Structures are given as C-alpha cells and as structure tokens.
Amino acid sequence: MIIAKTKIGPQHHGRKMSLRAFEFAETEPGYVYELARGYIVVSEVANYLHAMQIVAIMRPLWRYDAAHPGAIHAILSGADCKLLVFDWDSERHPDISVYLTKPRGPRNRTVWRRWIPDLAVEVVSERSRDRDYVEKRDEYWSLGVKEYWIVDAKLQQVMALRRGRSRWTENTFGPDSALETKLLPGFKLPCRDVLAVVAESSNDES
Predict the structure, then answer these.
(1) Residue 150 — φ and ψ, nearest 5°?
(2) In angstroms, what CA-CA distances link 26 with 77, 84, 125?
(3) DSSP-assigned letter for residue 7
(4) Domain 46-205's class?
C-alpha cells in the first residue's frame, strides 16, 4: 500500500490508493496524475494536438472574459486545479475548468474540496476515452458541475452535458455548429475551430 509520504511516479500506475492519501501525496514531475475510482492513473503530458484543441477552446473563453468583466472568476487548466470526488474515491484534473464565482471558506490547499467549477471540459484521447465518457460523466454529476463538454476530434463532435433535475441532458454538436451555454450568455464556441485541429495537422504532415 502506498502512503502519502511516498513520492508517486510512473511506476505506480494502476496501484490502489485512497483519495485521502492521494490528495497531498508528492509526485514525480513530468507526468499527469489522477486517481480513478481508487487507482492511480499516470499519463504523459498532453501531446501537441491535444494541447492545440485546448487552446482553441481557451481563446473564445478568454475573449468572452475580456468582453464581460466579472462574468467569469477563473479559467483554469488541468495543472492549475483539481476536482476531489469523495463519493467515487477519485481526483480529476479537467483539461479546462471554468469557475463563475470565488471559492467559499479558507483559500488554502483544501480549497479544492469545496470549490467546484461550473463548467468542466475534457478533450478525448484514445487512452482517456472510457474515463471521459463514462467515469467522469458520473463523477462530475455527483460533484454538482453544471455543464460538462466532451471534445472528440476522432468522432468530429463536441458533446455538451447540461444538468437536469435528475440526470444530464445531452446535445451533440458537429463541425458546422456553434456551442452556446446559458452559463455565459452570448458566448459561442465555433466547433470547427476545435475539431479541425487534427485534420489540419494531418495535412501538414502529408
């Protein structure tokens, strides 16, 4: 059993650990660490295509933030925040988290136990497909996330899950669509700008 004082590295991928121990455990730099239903998941830092899809989503969010001061409190990347899902014994790092309000309570290292993003965004990779579509769908619901976007360039779609009374309501957007959200009135995400990243890269390599 790994304990919190042990430095976690890539060799610990797949090992069992409690969220309580994982939350403040020391990690070997150069990798991305999550806890998935009580098991450590170690991933490589995002590749270029994954990163550029995140950039394509971030850009309109930052433009909206500049045009609507005060509407968004923070737009954070996966390295800047974490979601502690105690019901599932998981710690997640969404590719993008949008917080509309400031955190309540002390703003120390326990802030992530209370501060939940209004919008979480995941960019799908082949290794993360099951986690993004299945596990995180349940976990983000249990936390109270209001919207969850799943960006899938392979399927050329962006799936928007919006909080209903007892379950997510699901809408899928293709390259010719613009995704809008009631969380940010007037905001539009041109899906083509995000989904075209992979196709453009393939053309560059040919």
Answers:
(1) -115, 110
(2) 20, 16, 26
(3) P
(4) alpha beta
